[in-house]
Amino acid sequence: GNCGILESAMLGRQWRRWLGRFAPGLSAARRRRLQAKNGSPIWAECVSAEELESRMLLSASSATHLVFSVQPTDTTAGTSFSVAVSVNDSTANVMTTNDSTIRLTILGRGRFSGDGHTMTATAVDGVANFNDLTLDKAGSYTLEASIGHRHRVMSNSFEVAPDTSGSEKLVFLGRDSQYGRVNQPLRNVSVAVEDQFGNVIKSDSSQVTLSINSGPTTSFASGVPAPYTESTDNGVAKFSDVTFDTAGTYTLSASDSNDEVSSAISNSITINDHGRHSGEWSHHDGGFDFGDRF
Question: Is the pTM here over 0.90, yes or no?
Fold first, then answer.
C-alpha cells in the first residue's frame, strides 16, 4: 500500500534517485521538501506504483529520451489519427524491454474528443501507440509525450482543418441579443458558415441572404437592399446596413446560396423609438440603448 520515489537535488551535485516509504494510500503525485543531514534541501515526490515502476525502468537502463516514431500529420476535424512514441537509449535504439506508461498531452487549449487533453498508453517492446485520436476544433496543435517530469518530447506541429465533407450550417455571431434604434443601422451583424463541429469554414465563398423572420414588419427600412445579400469573406458574411423603420422585437433569418448549408435564425433584436438625437442618454429595461455614447 506504500508508494514512493524521491528525486533529490543536493546543491552543487548531480540529480540522484532515492526510494522512500511514505504513508499508505498516497497515490497522487505530491512533492515534499525534506532536509538532508548536511542542511541541503531534498525535494521528494510520492507517485503511484505504476509511475514509480516506469521511472525505475528508465533509471536502471541506458534510456535517455523519448522519440515520436510516428509524428502527427495535418488532418480534419473529427477524423481519427495515430501517433507512436518510442523509448530510446543513448545510441537511438528502441529499448524493446521497456514497458513504461507514457502520457500524451495536447499543448494549449485543445482537447481530445471526449477524453480531455491527456491520454496514456503502455509501451509494448519499447513503443507506445496512440490510436484513434480525434480533435474536433480546427487550429494548430503540438503534442507532448512524457514519463514523469524528467522525460519529455514535443511532436511536430500540425493543423486540424474544418470538416467540409459533412453537414454545414449558418450561425449568427456575436452577442445573445441586440438593441437598436429606429432608422439606425445595427452594429456587428455577422453570419458564419460552420462545419458540424462549430468551426468557421474560412475557405467558403458562398453568398448569404438576410431577411426578417419575425417582427412588426416584414421588410427592412427604405434604402436597405432587397434581398439583402453579402458574400462571405474567410467564411463570414458581414451586414452593415441592417435598419428597421418600426419599433418592436425582431428575429432575422439567414440562408446560403448553397442549398446544402442549413439556414439560421437570430436571437431577438429589440428596436426602440424614443425620438432622440444621437448621443443622448436613454434608460430602458435597466440598461442603455445599443450604440449609445456615454
Answer: no
